[in-house]
Amino acid sequence: MKIRVLGCAGMVSTDSKTSAFLINDRVLLDGGTICSSLTHDEIKPLKHIFISHPHFDHIKGLPTLAENLVFMQEKGPVTIYGSEHTLNSIRQHLMNGIIWPDFSVLPSEDAPILKYCRIDEGVAVHVEGLSVTPIFLCQNFTDFGYLIDDGKSTLLYTSDIGSDSKLTIKGTVPDSMIIEISFPNEKEELALQTGHLTPLLMIDMIQKLTVQPRNIFVSHIKSYFRDQIIAEVQALGIPNLVILNDGDILNI
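Given the sequence above, the corresponding C-alpha cells read:
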C-alpha cells in the first residue's frame, strides 16, 4: 500500500498543510489538503474521498477540488463518504449554496461533480482494490477512524481521537497506524478540552493495546509546537514510531 501524505499538520502555516492521505494514488483519507498538493493530472484518478469528521482542517480542500473538477470538465462524480453527521455538516455549512456552491447539483442535477455516500460503522466499502471499514473511535459516535486493507497490508487511520476515545483493535492487528498528537505535554488540559492527544496521552493509549501495529505514524502536530512535540516524542524511546511530514511517501 502506497500512502502519499498531502498534509499532516494540525494547523495551517507557511510550511504546513492539513490532513489528507492519498492511498495508491486513487483514494483519499480526509480532505484538508488537495489541490495545493496535486496537479490536474494527479487529481484525475481521484474518485473516492473518505472523511473522518467535519472539522474545517479535514474538509477545507473539498470546495476547491469541486471547482477545479468543473473547470477540468471531468466526467463522473467524486464520491465523498462519511457518517450522516459528517455529510450533513458539509452540505449544510460548507457547500450549501451560500458559503460555496452546492456541487452535488452542479454543473447539473443529472451530472453533478460531487456525490455524497453515507457509510455505517463496521460495514466495509470496496473501492479501487481497497477495503475501507469505518470504525467509531470517539464517544460521540459520529466521527470515524478507518481500517484500510489492500489484501497485502493494512492501515488504521485514527484521525482526531482524543484521550476519552476507546482505541481498540479487533481481529487482525493492522500493519500500520496513523495516530494524532496535537499538543505538547504541558498543554494537556487544552488537549483534553479539545479532544486531542499529547505525547504522554498518546503513549498511554498505545500501551493499553494488547498488541501494537508494526509501524506507528504520528500526524496532526500543531506546527506552532512542532519542535517541542518532536523532542517529547523522541524522549519516549519508541523504536517503531515515526513523525510524519507533509510530502512523505510511505510504502507499507
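The radius of gyration is 17 Å. Try to locate this feature in the C-alpha cell string yourself.
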